[in-house]
Amino acid sequence: MTLQSTGYDKYGRVLAVVYDRNVNINLKLVEQGMAWAYRQTQSIYEQAQEQAKNRRIGLWNDARPIEPTEWRKIKGIGYPSSNDSNVVQTHKPEYSSVMSSMDCSQKLTCKDFKNYSEAARYFHQCHAKKLDGDGDNIPCNSLYDKMRKHR
């Protein structure tokens, strides 16, 4: 693996393209619907994302995928402000005891989750289709609606 760094973003994160034997891993991830194309990126990534969307693969198989920036807003995860360039913030996600183990043998219901993020994680990782009562690929609609209201 090699990294071809293109600099840093405004938060101090390294921007790079990852290669494995001349294969652009960043592009492969976008093509397979496993990553979002960065908005200010080369058109090849945007084209790959559009193709993945059209094929409804990876995250595009979800009825309403949540963009990373939106997810961070929902979760209240922030970055240093642009005038705070010397500050490095880290965030360690906090999950309830239900989520820390992610035991798919447990048969959980929507009442077992404290928020939509936990329900969605369990739903996708454990293929818990029973959490999706109306078949829209969104588990625990009441938690989803609650999350959307608090944006």
TrEMBL record:
Q: State the Pfam families in the record.
A: Excalibur, SNase
Q: Which InterPro entries match?
A: Excalibur_Ca-bd_domain, SNase_OB-fold_sf, Staphylococal_nuclease_OB-fold, Thermonucl_AS
Spell out the PROSITE patterns in the cross-references.
TNASE_2 (PS01284), TNASE_3 (PS50830)
User: Would I find Nuclease among this entry's keywords?
Assistant: yes
Tell me if Cell inner membrane is a UniProt keyword of this record: no
Q: Which GO terms describe its molecular function?
A: endonuclease activity; hydrolase activity; nucleic acid binding
Domain named TNase-like is located at 1-62
Alphabetical UniProt keywords:
Endonuclease, Hydrolase, Nuclease
What highest taxon heads this organism's lineage?
Bacteria
Q: What is this protein called?
A: Putative micrococcal nuclease (Thermonuclease)-like protein
Upper taxonomic lineage? Bacteria, Pseudomonadati, Pseudomonadota, Gammaproteobacteria, Pasteurellales
